[in-house]
């Protein structure tokens, strides 16, 4: 037991938990804005995959990780535009259009990836290095866990209070939440519903693309088909499990990341069980979380329901 | 028509149709197909491929000869089945995307049956294998239905999560677990070959087309009869249109959802059986990957109707089969096909919406 939970391993598990939280947190906190506006984006997985793929292409061909970050956000914006066109303009069922977007992203990324690596070994790149915050990183335990992370990880955590402030302390946020509860009221006030929906989808999709970009640049040096492996879906589950509140979403993301972090440490912990069990834990946990969830008091009333005047 | 000056100024506007018009609907779906193909051509062009050469190789490889047709129908077999599984669920507006996992569950159930029932007379052995595959798929579908009915868990999310879970289970069973192929020193993530007696009989003396194709055709007929001619089919369609009215009529909605998901899972499970015991003859995951997701596209493009799904399944089976030929001849990655499928699904979704609208010319005063 003592060896199992030795200090070094525990710190390593918690530090990588914080890192694993980053991409899911970007997506979840961004999509919270989208969902609060009544758009149920089921294409998060595909948007994240597109962000990761774009980041890979740019990072491995230019060598610049920051250019790759911007490109990932731009590709997220493009997917957001498509999502908004399908849901706000065409008013296709949100679930179905999201599925279509996931399938499109899966197919396109695989095709372009094959074209990109055709006839040569797969190019790699150098991802982000961690940046120790002076002073804070010297704190025992906490310094290593919280303050020796990549820059984007700090940004992801900073986005939680920023989004909270936008949603709950600004007029714009009040109107956005109203969009998910009673769009007719805004319509009568003369506010352009479709434009607001586009904006809400774009915020979510850009942050999801950024999350996908970090997934690529913060964890790996090469792209794989379906590299997101359900993390976009976990972001959607985190919003539901977090009862559509920023701090709840943060807590749910923490649970998923902790489980995944434990799974990646199974080898070190030398537990004598199939490693697949640990890999399966976040997905199992998400079903159990949703089963135990009776209270959905903050779910926007018009979530996923297209608005017709 | 003669001159704009003498007539009141008019402009085009879009308005919602009260009833659907067959000609307009057809025009919209035809446009969706053409736009989808044009976008796919653009995709080919951006990657520097010879568009005409690639498309002609794709067509030739899909439908160019009797041999090509057999390959096409063989590829279409599991896709028609997963497409039908989508039709049953989506007609009830149960948005299950669990077909992917149910294909795996069906394949695993059948493989279990193949181990347990070994030694029985061939006809009985085969029937029991197929039955255990169907049960495997149906069970996984039922879990999602119970989660939705009892625990109010969104079926999209629960089915996605189960798709991942089932892949991990299979990965354990064939990659180190009890079903791993022994004899070899390297672990290939597959089982050993299944016994000859358990393989589905081939049709027309070919090496590719097997009994599974007839199952797919029979399933299409069963789905048609089920949806259009039976009380349960009426309930399924009513669940899609107006669940509240259905509940007032005294129908147990939860039971209907469970039936829908069990049937949908059973059909998807059959796809897994047919792929393992008709084509690859051993249980491995790469031959099953993506069949369920493609089935969703096929069911949607088939208009959520059994006949349309069979036609769409054969077309997409042709693309999957012709893609190999295209890869050889035009040096285009076969991954073009999933990209094309995604594009076509989105254009068809837009066409489905546009079919409900029409362009009308109105005077300025009317607006």
TrEMBL record, chain A:
Its main location: membrane. Pfam families: BPD_transp_2 (PF02653). The chain crosses the membrane at residues 6-27, 39-59, 65-88, 95-113, 151-168, 198-217, 223-242, 249-269, 275-293. The keyword Transmembrane applies. GO terms for cellular component: plasma membrane. It is found in: Cell membrane. It is a multi-pass membrane protein. InterPro entries: ABC_transp_permease. GO terms for molecular function: transmembrane transporter activity. Keywords: Cell membrane, Membrane, Transmembrane, Transmembrane helix. This is Galactoside transport system permease protein MglC.
Automatic annotation (TrEMBL), chain B:
The chain crosses the membrane at residues 21-48, 68-90, 102-120, 126-147, 156-174, 209-227, 257-277, 297-324, 336-357. Keywords: Cell membrane, Membrane, Transmembrane, Transmembrane helix. It is a multi-pass membrane protein. GO terms for cellular component: plasma membrane. It is found in: Cell membrane. Signal peptide: none annotated. Its main location: membrane. The keyword Membrane applies. The keyword Cytoplasm does not apply. CDD domains: TM_PBP1_transp_TpRbsC_like. One of its GO terms (molecular function) is transmembrane transporter activity. Pfam families: BPD_transp_2 (PF02653). This is Beta-methylgalactoside transporter inner membrane component. It comes from Roseovarius aestuarii. The lineage of its organism: Bacteria, Pseudomonadati, Pseudomonadota, Alphaproteobacteria, Rhodobacterales.
């Amino acid at each position: 037991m003592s060896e199992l939970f030795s200090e070094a391993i525990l710190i390593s598990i918690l530090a990588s938990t914080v890192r694993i939280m980053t991409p899911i947190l970007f997506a979840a906190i961004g999509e919270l804005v989208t969902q609060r506006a009544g758009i149920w984006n089921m294409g998060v997985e595909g948007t994240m995959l597109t962000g990761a793929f774009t980041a890979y292409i740019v990072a491995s061909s230019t060598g610049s990780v920051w250019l790759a970050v911007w490109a990932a956000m731009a590709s997220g914006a493009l997917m957001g535009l498509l999502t908004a066109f399908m849901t706000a303009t065409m008013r296709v069922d949100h679930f179905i259009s999201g599925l279509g977007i996931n399938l499109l992203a899966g197919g396109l990324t695989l095709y372009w990836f094959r074209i990109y690596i055709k006839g040569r070994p797969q190019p790699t790149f150098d991802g982000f290095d961690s940046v120790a915050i002076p002073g804070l990183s010297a704190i025992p335990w906490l310094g290593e866990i919280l303050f020796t992370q990549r820059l984007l990880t700090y940004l992801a955590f900073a986005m939680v209070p920023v989004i909270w402030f936008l949603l709950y302390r600004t007029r714009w946020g009040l109107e956005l939440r109203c969009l998910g509860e009673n769009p007719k009221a805004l319509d009568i006030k003369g506010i352009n519903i479709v434009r607001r929906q586009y904006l809400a989808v774009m915020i979510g999709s850009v942050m999801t693309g950024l999350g996908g970009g970090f997934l690529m640049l913060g964890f790996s040096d090469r792209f794989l088909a379906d590299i997101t492996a359900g993390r976009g879906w976990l972001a959607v589950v985190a919003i539901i499990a977090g009862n559509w509140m920023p701090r709840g979403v943060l807590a749910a993301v923490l649970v998923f990341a902790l489980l995944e972090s434990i799974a990646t440490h199974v080898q070190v912990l030398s537990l004598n069980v199939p490693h697949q069990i640990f890999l399966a834990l976040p997905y199992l946990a998400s079903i159990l979380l949703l089963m135990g969830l009776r209270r959905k008091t903050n779910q926007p009333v018009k979530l996923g329901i297209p608005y017709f005047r | 028509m003669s001159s704009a000056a003498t007539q009141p100024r008019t402009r085009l506007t879009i308005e919602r149709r009260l009833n659907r018009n067959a000609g307009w609907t057809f025009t919209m779906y035809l446009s969706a197909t053409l736009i989808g193909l044009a976008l796919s051509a653009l995709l080919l062009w951006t990657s520097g491929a010879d568009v005409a050469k690639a498309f002609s190789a794709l067509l030739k490889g899909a439908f160019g000869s009797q041999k090509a047709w057999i390959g096409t129908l063989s590829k279409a077999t599991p896709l028609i089945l997963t497409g039908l599984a989508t039709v049953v669920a989506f007609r009830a507006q149960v948005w299950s995307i669990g077909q992917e996992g149910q294909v795996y569950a069906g394949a695993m159930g059948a493989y279990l049956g193949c181990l347990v029932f070994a030694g029985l007379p061939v006809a009985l052995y085969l029937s029991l294998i197929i039955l255990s595959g169907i049960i495997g798929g149906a069970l996984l579908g039922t879990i999602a239905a119970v989660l939705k009915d009892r625990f109010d868990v969104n079926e999209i999310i629960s089915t996605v999560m189960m798709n991942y879970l089932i892949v991990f289970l299979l990965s354990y069973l064939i990659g180190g677990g009890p079903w791993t192929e022994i004899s070899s020193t390297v672990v290939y993530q597959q089982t050993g070959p299944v016994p000859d007696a358990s393989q589905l009989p081939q049709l027309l003396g070919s090496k590719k087309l097997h009994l599974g194709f007839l199952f797919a055709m029979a399933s299409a007929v069963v789905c048609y009869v089920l949806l259009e001619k039976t009380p349960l089919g009426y309930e399924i369609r009513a669940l899609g249109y107006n669940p509240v009215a259905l509940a007032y009529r005294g129908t147990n909605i939860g039971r209907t959802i469970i039936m829908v998901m069990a049937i949908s899972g059973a059909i998807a499970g059959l796809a897994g059986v047919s792929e393992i015991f008709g084509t690859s003859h051993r249980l491995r995951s790469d031959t099953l990957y993506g069949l369920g997701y493609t089935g969703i596209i096929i069911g949607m493009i088939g208009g959520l109707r059994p006949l349309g799904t069979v036609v769409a399944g054969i077309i997409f089976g042709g693309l999957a089969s012709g893609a190999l030929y295209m890869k050889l001849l035009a040096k285009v990655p076969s991954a073009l096909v999933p990209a094309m499928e995604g594009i076509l699904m989105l254009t068809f979704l837009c066409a489905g919406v546009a079919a409900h609208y029409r362009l009308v010319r109105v005077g300025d005063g009317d607006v």
